[in-house]
Design a protein that fits this description.
By secondary structure, the protein is an alpha/beta fold. Among the domains are: 54-187, Rossmann fold; 205-369, NAD(P)-binding Rossmann-like Domain (Rossmann fold, 3-Layer(aba) Sandwich), CATH 3.40.50.720. The protein has 17 helices and 12 strands. A 7-stranded mixed sheet has the order 9-8-7-6-10-11-12, with helices on both faces. Strands 1-2-4-3-5 form a 5-stranded mixed sheet, with helices on both faces. The structure holds NADPH dihydro-nicotinamide-adenine-dinucleotide phosphate. Residues 165-167, 208, 236-241, 259-262, 318-320, 323, 343-345, 370, 373 line the site of NADPH dihydro-nicotinamide-adenine-dinucleotide phosphate (NDP). Residues 165-167, 208, 236-241, 259-262, 318-320, 323, 343-345, 370, 373 line the site of NADPH dihydro-nicotinamide-adenine-dinucleotide phosphate.
Length: 445
Amino acid sequence: MSYVDKIIADIEKKNADQPEFLQAAKEVLESLRVVVDSDKKYEDVALLERIVEPERIVQFRVPWIDDSGKVQVNRGYRVEFNSAIGPYKGGLRFHPTVNLSIIKFLGFEQIFKNSLTGLPIGGGKGGSDFDPKGKSDFEVMRFCQSFMTELSRHIGPNTDVPAGDIGVGGREIGFMYGQYKRLKNEFTGVLTGKGLEWGGSLARTEATGYGLVYTVEEYLKSIGDSFKGKKVAVSGSGNVAIFATQKVQQLGGTVVSMTDSTGYVYHEAGINLDDIKEIKLVQRGRLADYGKKHSDAVYKEVGNGSVWDIPADIALPCATQNELDLENAKTLVKNGCKVVGEGANMPSTQDAADYFVANKVAFFPGKAANAGGVGVSALEMSQNSERLSWTFEEVDSQLNKMMVNIFHAIDDASREYGMEGNYIAGANIAGFKKVASAMIDQGIV
Ligand code: NDP
């Protein structure tokens, strides 16, 4: 049995109840075969055994009191996965579906993503099964304060620096930062995604969506093409989807769709982003309202077809994990889609991703294509350490450079190992080699 097969069998046995983690870990391990099975140095130091095992997992009780005076209890997590190249870094997700498997999958992906940014940040992730939707601001505040009261023991500006993710935006980061400061009596860069007046970075809000589009743009450039005149299908209508749409529109492409958890809109003439921002960011409403406002747009509720049925040159899934399956992938390819860039984390199922690669679609996995968010978070850490704030243009230009470098790093790695155009393998290999080399240098820890 090869080294990789041995590790896969081992993680399947140990984590049988963690399907998302197994999916993510197996995908990475499969593409590392060409690197680790041919070089015994990795097996000699049990590199894979160590990299699939988080350095530390914290699970905790989060009690809080709702507006009616009733005590509620949620479950909190922080998975500190790998600190070989820097302090743990990764978001916090508040969503009812959150469980250890999902946090471990996200934390594992984060190791390689953070490595690809070229910045000194390790991998981690956390969150809770708390649902901020439908809660009052005071309820969200009491929850965040309770969550941070425990989390504060485990994080620090040189140890672990969480950020936002699904369900954790500026409001939640603010409440958690306030509580951290109160507990520790220090003003430090312990969270990123902070408000601009209190240590946040310009361009962090835009970073993931913009970065996704910069990656795809660099690929298009490499084949003598551009976004001009392209039809782009986007899913999601949250932070990543909105700013990916904005950048595509700036570069001359037409975004024809968006989704939320209740349905999708197809607007062939092009999505009106101001209306989306008003509905999703200001009113915190539903996409159905967009359909009502635009008579030439089609709104369909979940269960009536899929956003991936829409003909598009480029697809940018920006909502959530496993939102694009094999059937969707086949439809996209049949309709002429040539490029897929993942804004969300693991939005394509494994067989969908494999189908894209097998059918010569330029497929950019989230761990490379959405690394701009964490990349700018790391730039926020740098600004906090310097006690300086950089201009929007300065941060945006560093983001652009970072994403251009990521495209070339994964492209080069795919070529070096004889898998030209397979950016899944390229991202896994390029991300892995740097972390593995740091782990080897640091001994058996
Ligand atoms: P938001 O919470 O801002 O938006 C998420 C969007 O996805 C919303 O439109 C939401 O709909 C929709 N959505 C969520 N769950 C589902 C579901 N089960 N089915 C259909 N639609 C769903 O999150 P972000 O935009 O920040 O994050 C989106 C993805 O990008 C996540 O995978 C996240 O991990 C990843 N990511 C985010 C980064 C960031 O900087 N924000 C960085 C890197 C990755 P609704 O409005 O109905 O809730």
